[in-house]
Amino acid sequence: MNRKSLRQASGPLSLVLVVLLCWLASGIIADRMVQQELDAALRTQRQMSASIVDNMAEVIASDLSMSRAIPATMAEMDVVQRALAQSQNYAANGAMPPPMLRAILLKAPQLTAVSNFLHDAQGFSGLDSIWLVNANGLCIASSNAQSRNFVGIDMRSRNYLTNALLGAFGEAYGVGRASGEPGIFIAAPVYDEGGVLVGAVVAKVGIGRLRHWVAHAGTFVADENGVIIMAHNSALEGHALADGHVRKMSADERRNTYRRLDFPNVQIEADMQRLREQAPWVPTDIAAQLFGVAERPEPALYESRDGLNSGLSAHLVDPLAAWPELLRNHKRDRLLVFLTLAGTAALAWVITVSYVRERRHHRATRDLAEQLQSANTLLSAEARHDSLTGALSRRYFLDLLRHEIERARASGEPLCMAIADLDHFKQINDCFGHAAGDRALEHFVDTCRAELRGSDSIGRLGGEEFGILLPATALEGGREVVERLRTRLKARPSTKLPASASLSVSIGITELSAEDLPERIMSRADLALYAAKSGGRDRTEALPPDDTAPPARTVATTW
Fold first, then answer.
1. Which pLDDT does position 558 carry in this prediction?
2. GO: which molecular function terms (predicted)?
3. Which of 65, 101, 275, 507 is most open to solvent, judged by the fewest CB atoms within 10 Å of its CB?
4. For the whole model, what pTM was predicted?
């Protein structure tokens, strides 16, 4: 083959090689470009998804707290305590036939009056049903005695009533055996004036009243057994999470709770294979954060929140809204980059298109960021206070501590911090129920507000542990303040607690030193609290601002 023939043959080969190299290079460049867009879209949508599910969790916790308050309040009423105390001789397993027992209960004037009272209370409370159950598990009065009568029914087998008849607050999801309607059942134990458990107030909140929990697309609520009890897409209701406890329940337990035996699986898991088939350019670390959802081609973000002061958990499966556009952008980008590498004219055109698109994306991202900032500002304002006691939340208290330290150093004034822990709090919960424990926490915070100055602050650090800030106060003066607080708490018991419930507090206090960081002063206050606990409880211990003091006990939960 002569030189001319070689040139003629090498021309098309070179062109093919250049085209191939440009195509490969355009693929690499397009991958990088769309990866950046994917990262920005994920970051923005993840923030929005987290805000949605956090707000959903707060709404659930708030609604349940309000629903719990009604039976808990009714359990304190004389008419309820008296009716239950007078009905202790009635039992479902007695010698009297059930129809006769029901007839006697329905004809009793005092119980009829109680049923009418429950009916009126149901009307303004937003509850579906309210029942009184005596210590023998027998329903003696009902808010719906006229329409759907539960009087005379043995309710001991209801799982939500078990804890209440043992003296603890009970709450569970279930399906009504008579109505077949799902709801949240709340049971509050009732004690008479002598502190004897005489029964329980049981209330039901129908799922239909709580549909606003799942107003956002992709949201659903699961109970403690992993069963989806409510979903924006109602077709998911009755399904179970893959790791749900319902799989371990016996057939009788599932039938008693849900009135059904079969629970289809809801698979929410990383679908690497399908994602790789659609978009091999997605990095492995990002692919592991995306979840596959049945019957949806695009991947999704998954957020869940549990620990809502109940057995419920909030979930959000949020399909990646930008996914179809990202797939289109990748194909388009590759072609545009290929044309750009083929000539300067195409390069100028691609730059113009990319610039316009990036500007549009930047504007959309900025708008979403501003919306997110506004939503976060609103949520942070709502999260400043503990929902039970009204004290400052842990996060806001820690922010306030940093601010007070800076202000104390700037003004040269002293600053004291104390950590208080209610003594034997678990015994109060175990002996008198969690409702009594909640009232004990509220009474302590009320006592602090009555004793402390307006410039002082109290925050709930967790459980029964509280932090107290005393600005412009030296250690000796601070010790006197918290000692008065400790004495007042013991000298003035709460009228909402049983007379036998002895409430006391141990307090550790320290003063800010010149070199203290927030972690250091909290650690020293925690060490002082530990000394008060070790010294017999119901006492105050002060630790001077000595930087050479040993670190706090390793079990401290301040940081």
1. 33
2. diguanylate cyclase activity
3. 65
4. 0.54
